Amino acid sequence: MRRFLTRVAPVAVAVAALAAPAVPAGAAAAPGLSFRPLHYNTNGYNWGGYAATGSGFTSVSAAWTEANATCNSTDDLYAPWVGIDGYGSSTVEQTGVATDCSSGSPVHQAWYEMYPANPVYLSRSSYPVSAGDHITASVTYAGSSKYTLKLTSSRGWTYSTSKSLSSQRTSAEVIIESPTGAYPNFGTLNFTSATINGSSLGSFGPVALDPSNGAYEARTGALGSGGTSFSETYLRE
After folding, report:
1. CA distance 110 to 125
2. What is d(CA 68, CA 143) in angstroms, rounded to the nearest whole number?
3. pTM as predicted
């Protein structure tokens, strides 16, 4: 399923307005971003990366360096994230960093979401993110429908929150996504230290997804020899 999001006026911690499922709509990265579940297809639509399927997923984590993205248009928006569920299920527990070009220049903002609840954007003054920052993200199931979502930045800050959601835990993902279906030119983004349930991402035989919107927009690279790293390479908006 493709994703939707609605742009709203900037606030320190923003909540998004959701649109109905069907095709991508206009969007934003700071305030107004909503990520929804994807249904099975190796054409990832606006997902790129790897999704593992099965049951009983309890954790997913990965790290990346925020890309120095160039905006092609004000429609451009994308986010690297990690999450549990969403690949063929009706919930997503996820966290990452969005890069929004609605102002004409890239704006980075950390966020988390317990879909179908609205996404929450972190204060840019308290949790700043810029190109070149090293980000580590994780989602951990703590039992009794509780999840811990955590982001750590090379700037020295860490954000962690615990949220509850009844979910299936039937997939785990390391993903880039454009809810608008329009990617800024991020060059190459490298995911590292990607693990699921404490083991390498590759050990779960994940599905590789390439994002597309009429034509492929980025290319998901092969997993590294350790099964914990891969690259996303920009192709087109």
Report:
1. 11
2. 38
3. 0.85
Residue type, 198: G
For the domain made up of 43-234, give the CATH fold.
Jelly Rolls (2.60.120)
CB 186 within 8 A of CB 177: no
Joined tokens for residue 8? 């709203």
For CA atoms 46, 90, 166, 118, give the dihedral sign.
positive
If one compares 57 and 22, the residue with the highest pLDDT of the two is 57
Enumerate the active-site residues.
177
Residues recorded for the chain: 237
CB atoms within 10 A of CB 70: 14
| Every domain of the chain and the residues it spans | 43-234
CA 38, CA 199: separation in Å to the nearest integer? 24
The rounded distance, in Å, linking the Cα atoms of 83 and 53 is 12
| Per-residue pLDDT, 229 | 98
Can you give the pLDDT at residue 17? 27
Cβ-contact 81, 149 below 8 angstroms: no
